[in-house]
Task: inverse folding
């Protein structure tokens, strides 16, 4: 009985082994399992990777908005459940901190010479991820309203305040400004933008010791408060969805918004045509005189798990390479993201992201402890905006909250 | 009941709870006294599609050695419990020494995240729980008195606040109470203030969350009471009626005493659920104005870098809080239990 | 009997009771009716920040689809996004959770209500303390072992976890109901020579339905509405309804299909209506059978 089973197994393996050499994407055998967020661009990548499945090659994907909560646990086992995680520059550090992803240099040398060098994400000289799309926040505004009032589209937050006052004075809108200021992650993101725009540094050089309680920090908070005076009073509950709905309803005239959300503002859904057709994008906004735009650049990329066999690693590498190859671009997928893939043709809707890159914006900090800082900021800044505390107190609270968290995590 | 019979009757339940609740609780307690190792951070150059920057990363080799030496992590005892994000003992004693008066001391304490969350959590618990009990009882009595043909649909409609997935239910309500939504506009009209917004001020946000809490949980109390009313001893009720008891007297002297055990049950569950209030804060984007202990756990576990030990400590504190909160009800139950023996 | 009580009430009290009930029903049902109506509109109308009247008249719906009603949300959810798969998974999860919870819960609840030893009380207290544990902490603790033992992502895992997490609640509720069933019933059966289990089987089971059905209703709603557990431990192909609905909502950087979510929620309310009608009749039948006497 035992030998019979064994014999059949060997037979089956031989059959699959012989034919698998010719399976798609040049993978002979192995297991590929992808975890990532679930927006359309990533669905496209996962689908293209899944097309590599065949004899002896198994490709599965688990795309969910909760991917960040499960990817570390799913890659810590040996062998890891997931052989690849699709992450962004903010979330790759969680994987690197736990040491669950492997350097890709050897795989690139052997199988990936054709991946354009600018897609490679290098940490300490080792390639840790391959990026395939970019995103950034930038200005979006109503050209009809600004043109009617003879206002130039703002290039800085200072201009934006002046323009907002003019729009309000003209009676066009009581609350002409918008922004994703929802307390928590979104609000912290706006502070990160504003602080970088003022030329601030989050940490003392080369360490995890925070240093945000300074002039730039206060200036960043004061600017956020000035802006909030022109926002709907509920601004602390508005995420991107809320802000975009305000824009589509015609209440918001100017806002700082994610490049990836502009397409849905301009389409024929959600807003009367006279509003939708007049929403256009500008560049990143400046603030103060640091010369650095008040925005951060983001990329999404794929990684390969550490705790898997070499065979699976090669299979994963090849499948993911195929997943982001130029062949995935077609009329439908072209508009899904700002692809960092050869053959991508930017549409006008993506000009904002490209303008942000061209203006020399900084990438969102890829530091092991910055996630803790982001969380601390998100919880504390609302107190300043609601007028419960002054700026210095808020910043020192945020530093204290961060220090507590970083001490627990062993960074301090 | 004999020990042996009892054992076999409760075995399946106990096994399930042991495996999936007791063991995790043990691991959570462990996690709250062990923190991750000190991370050796080194300076590195990072290059991405946008260019190269100086950055830092965790030195896995050095950190890995520490991890292998002590796989559980670094023993920190009660450090996490008393740090600023939790009980904040140091900060409180400092505030006590440095504050000029009670007011200043209190405002210092309320600035600490844990105590601020506790303030909302307790207020919420003690406002919502009694209201749910009262409202649920009133609905149950009212439904019990209508013709039985109408009862089915009435029960269904009354259950709607509970049936609709809170995820979507609160999203829709959130839009309805917006200052331009239908309920928001109605409130503005009733208050005579066209600029009133429920979401912009702290007190109104609290009220909104509590009203939602009552609305959402009242059906639970209603159904339990309604089921309880079906078993009210009829002969007692009839003899009360013959004695000329008014409707109110029947409720007061027959129905309410009969429903006491169920009330204890609802109160226990509601105190506990309300103490763990969390969903409405997330769905109403209310964290700028109100936070709770469970929201902290969610926040610690949902960030880009997850604070497992901190979440574990908050969870243990939540259990302790619930235990303290329930003590009076439990003492009551203990007495009833003692009485039922005889 | 209820009519005779009603007859004795003053008209004023009657009026008060009716108007109170009516007010409650409006409060309870209005958001749902609003959602039902709005599920046939486009997002720009239903979630309008310009004018709430749009949700009623369908201003943008007409502009975008040419009619003031659209079934686009339903079509998108059920056909394009294959919501029926999640609905099916939910059905499996809910049926299993309710059956298992009630089976093991009634046994234990009955024993707890009949035992006079102190450990019965303490078992209940421990169950209560267990319930105080926030579910998100529990779930995040499950992840690592579940991945390790290859249990993650499977429906049976989610079912067992949901049963275990709900067990303290089920126990307490059933114990409260069993305490209302007079002890003489099963005691007299045992005097007649039944074992404890036989007494339970032949005497208690026929009269326990109002309590069991009520508890079952809550187990059902808990399993049906659960997000914390199912979102974290079910894989994409085994996803149940609520995580699926959550996936329609989008993220900070991407727009979702909120109307799909709304349409899904509305369409799964219908089976619950049938269930509640059934449940209601069971409670009443328990009453009319006259088995429960104090």
Result:
């Amino acid at each position: 009985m035992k030998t019979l089973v064994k014999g059949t197994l060997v037979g089956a393996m031989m059959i699959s082994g012989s034919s698998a050499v010719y399976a798609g994407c040049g993978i002979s055998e192995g297991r590929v399992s992808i975890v990532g967020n679930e927006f359309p661009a990533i669905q496209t990548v996962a689908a293209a990777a899944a097309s590599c499945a065949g004899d002896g090659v198994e490709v599965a994907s688990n795309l969910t908005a909760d991917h960040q909560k499960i990817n570390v646990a799913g890659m810590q086992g040996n062998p890891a459940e997931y052989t690849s995680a699709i992450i962004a520059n903010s979330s790759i550090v969680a994987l690197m901190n736990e040491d669950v992803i492997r350097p890709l240099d050897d795989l690139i040398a052997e199988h990936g010479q054709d991946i354009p060098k600018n897609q490679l994400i290098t940490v300490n000289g080792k390639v840790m991820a391959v990026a395939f799309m970019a995103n950034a926040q930038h200005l979006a505004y109503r050209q009809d309203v600004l043109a009617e009032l003879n206002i130039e589209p703002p290039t800085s937050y200072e201009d934006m305040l002046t323009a907002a006052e003019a729009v309000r004075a003209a009676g066009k809108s009581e609350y002409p400004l918008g922004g994703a200021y929802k307390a928590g992650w979104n609000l912290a993101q706006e502070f990160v933008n504003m602080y970088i725009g003022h030329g601030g540094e989050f940490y003392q050089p080369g360490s995890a010791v925070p240093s945000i309680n300074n002039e730039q920090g206060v200036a960043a908070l004061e600017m956020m408060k000035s802006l909030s005076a022109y926002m709907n009073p509920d601004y602390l509950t508005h995420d991107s969805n809320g802000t975009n709905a305000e824009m589509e309803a015609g209440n918001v005239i100017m806002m700082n918004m994610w490049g990836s959300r502009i397409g849905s503002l301009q389409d024929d859904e959600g807003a009367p045509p006279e509003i939708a057709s007049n929403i256009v994008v500008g560049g990143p906004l400046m603030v103060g005189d640091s010369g650095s735009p008040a925005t951060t650049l983001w990329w999404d990329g794929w990684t390969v798990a550490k705790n898997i066999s070499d065979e699976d690693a090669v299979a994963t590498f090849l499948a993911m390479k195929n997943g982001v190859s130029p062949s995935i671009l077609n009329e439908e997928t072209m508009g899904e993201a700002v692809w960092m893939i050869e053959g991508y043709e930017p549409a006008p809707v993506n000009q904002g992201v490209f303008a942000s890159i061209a203006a020399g914006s900084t990438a969102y900090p890829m530091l092991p402890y910055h996630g803790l800082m982001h969380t601390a900021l998100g919880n504390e800044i609302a107190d300043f905006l609601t007028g419960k505390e002054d700026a210095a107190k808020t910043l020192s609270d945020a530093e204290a909250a961060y220090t507590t968290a970083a001490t627990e995590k062993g960074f301090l | 009941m004999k020990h042996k019979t009892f054992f076999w009757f409760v075995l399946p339940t106990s096994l399930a709870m042991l495996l999936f609740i007791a063991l995790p609780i043990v691991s959570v307690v462990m996690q709250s006294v062990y923190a991750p190792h000190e991370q050796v951070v080194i300076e590195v150059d990072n290059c991405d599609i946008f260019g190269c920057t100086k950055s830092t990363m965790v030195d896995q080799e050095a950190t890995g050695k520490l991890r292998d030496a002590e796989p559980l992590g670094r023993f920190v005892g009660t450090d996490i419990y008393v740090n600023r994000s939790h009980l904040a003992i140091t900060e409180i004693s400092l505030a006590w020494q440095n504050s000029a008066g009670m007011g200043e001391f209190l405002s210092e304490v309320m600035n600490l995240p844990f105590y601020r969350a506790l303030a909302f959590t307790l207020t919420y618990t003690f406002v919502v729980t009694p209201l749910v009990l009262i409202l649920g009882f009133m609905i149950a009595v009212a439904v019990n008195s209508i013709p039985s043909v109408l009862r089915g649909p009435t029960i269904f409609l009354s259950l709607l606040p509970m049936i609709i997935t809170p995820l979507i239910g609160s999203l829709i309500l959130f839009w309805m109470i917006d200052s331009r939504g239908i309920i928001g506009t109605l409130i503005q009209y009733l208050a005579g203030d066209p600029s009133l917004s429920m979401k912009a001020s702290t007190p109104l946000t609290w009220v909104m969350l509590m009203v939602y809490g009552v609305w959402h949980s009242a059906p639970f109390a209603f159904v339990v009471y309604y089921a309880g009313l079906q078993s009210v001893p009829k002969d007692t009720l009839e003899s009360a009626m013959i004695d000329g008891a008014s409707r109110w007297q029947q409720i007061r002297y027959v129905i309410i005493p009969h429903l006491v055990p169920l009330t204890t049950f609802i109160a226990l569950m509601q105190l506990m659920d309300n103490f763990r209030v969390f969903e409405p804060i997330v769905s109403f984007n209310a964290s700028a104005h109100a936070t709770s202990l469970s929201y902290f756990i969610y926040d610690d576990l949902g960030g880009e870098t997850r604070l497992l030990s901190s979440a574990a400590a908050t969870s243990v504190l939540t259990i302790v809080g619930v235990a303290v909160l329930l003590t009076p009800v439990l003492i009551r139950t203990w007495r009833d239990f003692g009485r039922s023996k005889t | 009997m209820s009519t005779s009580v009603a007859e004795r009430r003053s008209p004023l009290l009657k009026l008060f009771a009716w108007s109170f009930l009516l007010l409650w029903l409006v409060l309870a049902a209005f958001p749902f009716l609003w959602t039902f109506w709005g599920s046939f509109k486009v997002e720009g109308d239903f979630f309008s920040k310009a004018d709430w009247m749009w949700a009623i008249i369908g201003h943008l719906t007409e502009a975008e689809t040419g009619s003031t009603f659209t079934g686009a949300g339903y079509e998108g959810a059920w056909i394009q996004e294959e919501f029926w798969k999640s609905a099916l998974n939910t059905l499996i999860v809910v049926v299993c959770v309710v059956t298992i919870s009630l089976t093991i819960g009634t046994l234990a609840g009955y024993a707890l209500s009949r035992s006079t030893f102190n450990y019965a009380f303490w078992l209940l207290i421990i169950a209560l303390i267990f319930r105080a544990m926030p579910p998100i902490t529990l779930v995040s603790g499950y992840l690592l072992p579940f991945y390790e033992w290859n249990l993650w992502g499977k429906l049976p895992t989610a079912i067992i976890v949901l049963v275990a997490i709900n067990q303290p609640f089920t126990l307490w509720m059933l114990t409260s109901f069993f305490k209302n069933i007079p002890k003489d019933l099963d005691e007299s059966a045992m005097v007649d020579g039944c074992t404890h289990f036989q007494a339970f089987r032949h005497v208690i089971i026929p009269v326990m339905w109002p309590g069991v059905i009520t508890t079952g209703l809550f187990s059902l709603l808990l399993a049906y509405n659960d997000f914390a557990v199912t979102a974290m431990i079910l894989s994409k192909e085994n996803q149940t309804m609520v995580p699926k609905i959550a996936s329609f909502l989008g993220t900070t950087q991407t727009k979702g299909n909120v109307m799909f979510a709304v349409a899904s929620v509305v369409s799964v309310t219908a089976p619950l209506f049938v269930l509640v009608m059934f449940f209601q009749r069971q409670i009443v039948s328990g009453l009319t059978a006259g088995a429960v006497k104090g």
User: Anything to note?
Assistant: The domain at 84-288 of chain C is CATH 1.10.3720.10 (MetI-like fold). The first helix of chain C runs from residue 2 to 8. The two ends of chain C are 16 Å apart (CA to CA).
